[in-house]
Structure to design on (353 residues):
């Protein structure tokens, strides 16, 4: 059964590590608080600067003592030029997990109160970057108070406020708009009736034709991403791959879903092209990986890449993780993410005439 994720505004303290959150934006709420990754592991393959936090999913393995707590973290480069069509070099994904008895958290469930166990913090264990929240081996050479993961983030902070306060014993200025907006991810089970309806649309050619007509008339609901509804309307009387219409019909009743979680299940592709058939093996144990979840294009509606939203894009981001969920050797294990876009060449025939 697929679970659906939706964004929800909440108090920032509710999204801290002590509450094992699923969240979008802001700084990562690390699970293992001591062995967090740094610039070396988060570098974008294109610009070589660290990717910033996109989202994380708390997804424990109920039958594994080693993964009593388990979170998957996804990062993205915010530079427009690094968002390349159907390429995943601007994305990084990590898995972290802990047994119930561990050095960071009590064995009993957390109490959701603002003042509960405020001592549980990554900054009690390591220094983190003031800008992005990853491991920070560097600091300001003048005040020696503020920490950074790399020179690029130190320069950014210097230009956006630190220059005015450095060394004068004032409080650190409020963070500038560098990170993505922060939301909680709430999970709901997809209604089985919706799945049955989707299966009918896939199997019955006549139903597919009816759906295309509904789209043309604007009766099938909109795809909540800029300009896509216009594209669908343009394609309605043309030849379009069935995968795209299956995608639209599947999400139609829950159009603001930003995530689909289906560990061991199947990817809901957005196009016939650029599907993945060979998934790299786990670098920790050399075991197979399986599909775990995908981030949907609807999430883009809730983000702000410094006015670059129209250029930084994806169709879906499909995350694959170790099928055994083996124990990471250094706190965090790198997993695999596949980016599939709506390729213009796929739609060229549909947009002719």
């Amino acid at each position: 059964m697929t679970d659906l994720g939706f964004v929800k505004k909440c108090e920032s303290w509710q999204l801290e590590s002590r509450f094992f959150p699923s969240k979008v934006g802001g700084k990562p709420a690390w699970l293992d608080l001591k062995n967090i990754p740094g610039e070396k592991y988060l570098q974008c393959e294109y610009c070589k600067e660290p990717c910033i936090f996109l989202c994380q999913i708390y997804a424990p393995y109920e039958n594994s003592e080693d993964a009593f707590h388990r979170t998957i973290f996804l990062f993205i480069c915010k530079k427009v030029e690094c968002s390349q069509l159907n390429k995943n070099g601007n994305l990084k994904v990590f898995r972290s997990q802990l047994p119930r008895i561990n050095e960071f958290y009590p064995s009993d469930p957390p109490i959701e109160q603002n003042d509960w166990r405020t001592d549980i913090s990554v900054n009690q264990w390591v220094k983190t970057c003031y800008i992005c929240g990853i491991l920070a081996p560097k600091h300001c050479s003048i005040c020696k108070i503020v920490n950074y993961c790399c020179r690029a983030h130190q320069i950014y902070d210097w230009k956006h406020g630190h220059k005015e306060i450095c060394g004068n014993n004032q409080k650190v200025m409020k963070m500038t708009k560098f990170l993505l907006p922060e939301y909680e991810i709430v999970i709901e089970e997809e209604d089985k009736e919706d799945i049955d309806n989707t299966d009918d649309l896939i199997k019955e050619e006549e139903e597919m034709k009816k759906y295309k007509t509904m789209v043309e008339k604007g009766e099938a609901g909109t795809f909540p991403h800029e300009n896509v509804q216009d594209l669908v309307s343009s394609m309605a009387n043309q030849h379009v791959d069935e995968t795209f219409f299956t995608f639209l019909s599947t999400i139609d009743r829950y159009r603001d879903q930003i995530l689909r979680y289906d560990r061991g299940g199947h990817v809901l592709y957005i196009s016939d092209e650029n599907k993945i058939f060979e998934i790299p093996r786990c670098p920790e144990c050399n075991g197979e990986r399986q599909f775990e979840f995908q981030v949907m294009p609807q999430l883009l509606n809730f983000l702000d890449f410094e006015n670059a939203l129209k250029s930084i894009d994806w169709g879906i981001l499909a995350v694959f993780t170790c099928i055994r969920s083996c124990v990471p050797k250094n706190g965090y294990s790198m997993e695999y993410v596949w980016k599939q876009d709506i390729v213009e060449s796929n739609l060229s025939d549909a947009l002719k005439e």
Q: What stands out?
A: Confidence is low (pLDDT under 50) at residues 224-239, 345-353.
